[in-house]
Amino acid sequence: MKCAVVVFPGSNCDADVYHALTDDLGVDAHYVWHRESDITGYDVVVLPGGFSYGDYLRAGAIARFSPVMVSVQRFAQRGGLVLGICNGFQILVEAGLLPGALLKNDNLQFRCEWTTLRVDNHCTPFTSRCRKGQVLSLPIAHGEGRYHVDSDTLKEWNDAGRIVFRYATAEGDACREANPNGSLHNIAGIVNREGNVLGMMPHPERATNSLVGGEDGRWVLGSLVDYVERGCV
Amino acid sequence: MAVRTEDIIHNCLWQELGLKDSEYERIERLLGRHPNWTELGMFSVLWSEHCGYKHSKTALQSLPTQGEAILVGPGENAGVVDLGHGLALTFKVESHNHPIAIEPYQGAATGIGGIVRDILAMGARPIALLDSLRFGPLEAPWPRHIFSGVVAGIAGYGNCLGLPTVGGETYFDEGYAHNPLCNVMCVGLMRHEDIQRGVAAGVGNSVMLLGHSTGRDGIHGCTFASEELGENSPDRRPAVQVGDPFVEKLLIEACLELQRTDVVVGVQDMGAAGITSSCAETASRAGTGIEIDVTKVPLREKNMTPYDIMLSESQERMLLIVERGKENVVEEVAERWGLHVATIGRVTDDGLFRVYEGSEIVAEVPARALTDQAPIYRPLAERPTYLDQLQPIDEKRVQSLTDRDHLKDLKTLLGSANLASRRWIYQQYDHMVRTDTVIPPGGDAAVLRVKGTSMGVAVSVDGNGRYTYLDPYTGGAAAVAEAARNIVCTGGRPLAITNCLNFGNPEKPGIYYQFAEAVRGMGDACRALGTPVTGGNVSFYNESDGKAVYPTPVVGMVGLLLDIEKRLTVGFKRAGDIIVLLGDGPVALGGSEYAQRILNELGGIPPALDLEAEAALCEAVLDMVQARILSSCHDVSDGGLAVALAECAFRGDAGATGAKVHLEGDVAPPLALFAEGHSRIVVSCAPPKVDEVVRRAQVKGVPVRILGQVASERFSIFWADDILIDEDTNELTRCWQEGIPCMMS
Q1: What average pLDDT does the structure give for chain B?
Q2: Which residue is catalytic, options A86, A122, A142, A144?
Q3: pLDDT tens for residues B366-396?
Q4: What is the CATH number assigned to the segment(s) B1-66+197-378?
Q5: From the candidates B148, B430, B490, which should be mutated to test the interface with A, based on the most A CB atoms within 10 A?
Q6: Which CATH number covers residue A155?
Q7: Cβ atoms of B676 and B732 closer than 8 Å
Q8: B705 with B662: CB under 8 angstroms?
Q9: What architecture (CATH level 2) is domain B568-745?
Q10: d(CA B531, CA B510)
Q11: Catalytic residue at A36?
Q12: Secondary structure of residue B312 in the 3-state scheme
């Protein structure tokens, strides 16, 4: 599997994604500078976390205009796998590749902590290793992660199983107490209609080594590896 | 409009810039003429206390700065220690106290920006931040406002940089009600060959400015930082700079990219006193001269005078000394990262710092006169009378309090602002980015892995203003001892310290006494514990309306774990493990949280510190770390033994969140539970390892006492046959966790 890690000015989880993929998962990963327009030859494109363009104006609002995003759009349209993590999720939403918006956390503060999420759809390229209902422990680190979307889209996404991750208790209960930011229906990650673009606020790349607190991130990143190598879920 | 020299002389305008008459005369002597307005401005900032260390230099010279691990000592942007494997660690603490009192968010944010650039200037990639904060009591609205603003500012700037804030300490006390303190520490990692110096070397080389454009912000920021706060201080808001973390992030990446090109000869952060200090310092260190043209400086405002440009403290700028003819390499990197860059001058050989405005010379002064020839004062030190009036807290009276409800007192302490969980603070900081944080905030010290090696780096920042107020010498020494103990509790060997010394007005003999004594204590502790000083920062004039802040020496320490797998954490691991107290130093209630919160006594005599015992304790624990016989390890500090044990339980693994402990001995319950002392560490180990723990402690001459056992989820403390405390740990945890959120909501 060959993976592109896009670097926007202000990205700051690019090195973490690169490290997790190369050193912990043995993936062939490459940095792609945001001004580049050629992303052919990659199986997966990751938009990493951080504060692209300082998150000025609105998180992800400026990065969507970076030259590389034209190619990412085309890559996604052709069925390429795109994973947006945290700020990457915000960019995907701003770019219209995923519906909805990510609003300021309901507690009005930046939150960095371990959360538990329930896998509600294990039939995506990003969750192929998981069981349905499996609970993953992954960190969040964001100030604008409260997912919101209009009610029609919410219903469509719910019905079609495109809500992939929800914040839940360790027992798998997606209750208010398990929701760290006020996200609608505890939504932590969603896929697009075609199932090849996933955005998630939690950071799988921060959990690929027990030394730094856990390995559940491998369920997500490793699913991608499996999918690319097998060619199906 | 420039001020005329006649007006300066006639109206003694140097006084407006914070210079004394004698200092003006000194400048005249050094120049052999009257300085013009721009030159006077340049002297006023570099000779401010903040930049010139006029009142502190003499005392600081007594600190030990040599040691095996030291690669770069004081005098550069930050000190550097050797980690082995060709790697080096650079670290420094700096204060941003005055700015946060006026504008907490930006004051804290730009404090982070400044310390990060110091680390960057050494050639290192910044890898972590820590902070040491002091505020007035949280019960009052103004300290709450400053506290939440400072935390948000650190988060807003540090998180955007992608730098984990991994540790720190925060205290609330009446002693800081009018003068909050914000000390920030940055740690950077590099290879030996990448160590960079702030030198303007190579005559003819270019002087380049990289980063933000220059505006009028922060003019005279360091002069402001060198005076007492008063009722007009809010008018100083323009002296507080505004941060742009996005540009700083680009600056970090651009500088590290330039590092790999070998065209950069010297790097200097542009912080306090901006272009003036960075040019003067680089020329002075290299023994060269420097000339610049202010019309080449990219500006963001119109009609800026040479004076404004020279004194601006606009943030996110670096000064680069670049090999002549290689400017285009820097320009390409700057273009790639979208940063301003300009060649503003060149290195000369005449020792002068010459400033042009086009073809006209607007300032010309010897670089060394600015950096090395500020007057050095040897202030009068006089033991303040309050120190002689302190009485030990009447322990007989306290011992008669045996019928107190100790459980209630413990809960009060656990929920109090100084002892409650710091989660409310550190969950606002991204403490995991870079994926190196192995021991996150909340432990005794933070531990970071060094990717590609088996090593770990332990970092801690410590200080106790209340102790220092009650006993300046011991307070200074205790800051070092506590930092060392915290590092050791994670399994790290302490390597070196940097300091940040926060005091009142040193021109007052009582304040200078506190300063000199605290520095003396710090020096003795550094010698005893083998941790030299690699540099630091002094913040004087932390006073309002004539009342000084508690004298607060803060120590930032780094340590090394050769094998990160041998690290230790605070929390109990298994029910049935044996709890052992190592060290048995004298305890006292003077200055303790119990005295403050429960007895409402602010005075008293704080516990004594035996540096030899402290060093032995550290060695004993490190020996046990190597032997891998401990399950957990925690420093006994604020709140005493009961609080330390509770913290081990709160952080315990599932099924190991309780304790059953017997405290017997010569002191009665309130003291046994809550008195504070130095040189005590509580460890737990599997039952078969106890004999070895005891033996290894005794070999090092460390007193050892078996306290009890780790329990599954009940926290009980007995004294003889009496039950002093018996409670479900969950209930205690709730008090501890809800403390700060309750006060902030």
Answers
A1: 94
A2: A86
A3: 999 999 999 999 999 999 999 999 888 777 7
A4: 3.90.650.10
A5: B430
A6: 3.40.50.880
A7: no
A8: no
A9: Alpha-Beta Complex (3.90)
A10: 28
A11: no
A12: coil
